[in-house]
Amino acid sequence: MGQLQLYLANLPSSIPLAEPTTSQYSFDAFAILPDEIEDFGEAGAVSRQLEIHLGQCNNGPITFRERGKGLEAVVDVLEQYIEHLALSANPEVVLLTKWLEDLITAAENTFTSANIPFSQPSGTLAPNAAMQHVKTAQKTSIKPTTKNLVHVTDPDYEDQPEIKDTRKAAKISLAIDKYLSLSRNLTITFDGGKICKLKSLYCVHVLTSDRCTFCMELDDAAHLSHTAKYILELLEWVSSYYGVWNFCAVSSNNTGNMKKAWRLLCEKYPHILNMQDACHLLNLAVKDMCMLHEFEEVISQIQGVLAFMSHSSYAREHFDHIHSRLGISSGLESIGDTRFGTIFWAALSIQQGLSAFQTLVENPSLHIEIGSYTKLFTTGGAKYHSELELSKLLQITGPWAKGIQLLEAAHVTADHVYYVFLAIMAQHKEDFQKNEYRLKTSVMEDIWWIANGCFDELVNETPQTHNIYITAFVCNPVYRNSPIYQTINPLAIQPITISRKGTSVTCETVPPPSMVQCAGLSLQHMLHGSSDPTVEMRIRNPSLFKYTPAQALERLRDQFKAYICAEDPFNCKMHSHEGPLQWWNAISKDKYSDILTQKIFSALPISMADKQTQLMITYQQQVGTLQDHVKIRQWHRYKPEVVYKPLVTWRDMETTILGKHKASAMDESTPAPGHKPLVPQPHQSGSESDEGSGADLDGAGWLNGPHGLPLAFYSAAEQSFTLMGCDKIDLQAPYLHEMLGQAPKPLQQSSSTTQQRKVHVLRLNVDRYM
């Protein structure tokens, strides 16, 4: 303290001298508020005020803007709070001692810049063995892969005791910990990213079975090697904190290190299901389709048009006015790096605005020309060819982009993923049979390759999933009764199962035997993963505690047979306001249905929570501050009474979720949302153009790479879609086309309402599949 006092009292005269009443620092009137102490702790509140007065240390060495009593009083401030925190054994005293060292360093730099000699401090601030240890560690060229404290070479290291944190984020963290410690069937999701300060981080979320989301960790991964081992260490820390046996699934994208990390986690804990992020995988399929040579020209045109409109405010303002006057509700969308299916949405916005583009370029008073792309919007062969190619691109990428948006719902489950895959394949099959836009055979074969490879990666190449997607589809009573299963003989009558409960009789269709076999084996694998004699079953799975492994397997077989045959109690109707998880929770209360757990419908097959957290990151926030803000926001947004929301069809997406009105319902003079109507002004000759010559094309960098499919795709079948279990599913069923269709299609009459059909009673022999 004496050394700093001496330095500040003798700063060079080149620094302006300020009176105490006009000082910018005013440390002689230093004070912290009680609210700051509650939010940041005493040391944190003092450090925050020092940052406000002196600036952040991480932006470089501190520079003094003035000298005088207002600055010299900082010594009294540091001495007062350092002494108080040291007497109470508060470990956060190191924050203020760091400020003391930084201020001394700043004063020495000031003397050095002014060529004024100064004396070196002779105390604990001199370089010691600890500083030598830091310098030695900085010389290494290999980044560490762990944050665990393995060994300590610093002779002055002392482990500080923990203290009670009174901040709001800390209180909410305790409430979250208490809530999650009492929850079962949790899902852990994770993803990597960077903040605007170019610091890398990994976000880890924990979701409950009713889809309450909590950000558990925003891990600052700076100066560390982002290997699978490091990510596995992070996942194990979070999962073990709340109990590994309380988790049922893990979900993330298929980036190399992340893919290996969740595979290692599932191998170590076999009861955890491996759920690859379905939205991310569908987006990769869209990217592969966009790299086909067939769409290279039209995508280049889309990029060029959007680049011109983004750089020319004159053209964009007139375009916004015209498309609002024409009743077009949506505007142009740019191509981005982060939005899933971005090419489809950008192309769709151009197709919807074709009439507005044509009006724009054909108005002689505006004198607007979109470079070489003007001919795409004027009557002629180039316009018709461009519209045809644009329709081809939308027809190919549309089902996948729509499927991504459907799967971004909060209550999506594994059966929805398989259902959306079926809907995508059904849409493609119908489009390929009609072939309205004259697609080449080679293009359709490439689409088959991409689709089959996508599904193989999701299901067939990930053994830890235990065919969870098909199992969930079979175990959803809605799809068990859906009219999508085909018979081998097209003239045969659809078989149904008749079951009686009291005086009521119900008729149910049944899934094909191949899907039943797959689901039965999958349930047995999951039961085996939950039954381990080396672990106390009361902790791992309380519902199986009273049974031996053989008894549990026998009850599973009996109950699965009863479910497939729709016997009591599995013939209960599922209401529209409840999902499969609520249905199974109600069924599990029956003593004859206590083995078929709700695990498969509690698992979340997407990791959208991590993507949403990445969007909340701002430039100035540190990783720790951001994590506290996310926790507080998620806790206050938690509503335990939230009603289950079923999977929404594509044509109902905007009205159900976004609350938008149809374009036909808009008045002709009504502008598009967010845009003020303009009065078109004639183009003035000689005015400066704001088009921006030589501007980069608007779009993602991945579009600039080589086009065509990699050789790995050509190992899959190319003449048909080969989804596991769909060989006995009728992809032409209207029930599947309802999901992605723009207009409703008439459904076939149920067999229970047709009086002239002969009812065949089918008793499915499930023993051969279990």
What amount of the residues lies in strands? 5-15%
How would you write the strand order of the largest sheet? 3-2-1-4-5
Q: What is the makeup of the main sheet?
A: 5 strands, mixed
Structural class: mainly alpha
- What is the global morphology? flat
- When the domains are counted, the total is 4
The average pLDDT is: 75
Fraction in helix:
40-55%
Return residue spans where pLDDT drops below 50 for at least 5 consecutive residues.
122-131, 487-501, 503-508, 661-699, 749-765
Extended strand count: 7
CA distance, first residue to last residue: 78 Å
Number of helices: 29
Calculate Rg over CA atoms: 33 Å
Describe the protein in words.
This protein is mainly alpha-helical and 770 residues long. It has four domains: 2-134, no CATH class; 168-277 and 607-637, 2-Layer Sandwich (Nucleotidyltransferase, domain 5); 285-461 and 648-676 and 696-721, no CATH class; 466-602 and 747-769, no CATH class. It has 29 helices and seven strands. It has helices at residues 2-9, 34-40, 42-54, 69-72, 74-87, 93-113, 129-138, 168-181, 228-242, 256-268, 278-290, 296-311, 313-325, 342-352, 354-362, 381-407, 414-434, 441-460, 468-475, 477-480, 513-530, 537-540, 549-564, 580-587, 599-602, 608-614, 623-637, 653-658, 734-740; strands spanning 186-194, 200-207, 213-220, 247-252, 273-276, 497-501, 504-508. The strands form two sheets. Strands 3-2-1-4-5 form a five-stranded mixed sheet, sandwiched between helices. α1 (2-9) packs parallel to α6 (93-113), α9 crosses α10 and α13 crosses α15 (354-362). The longest helix has 27 residues, at 381-407. The N and C termini lie far apart (78 Å).
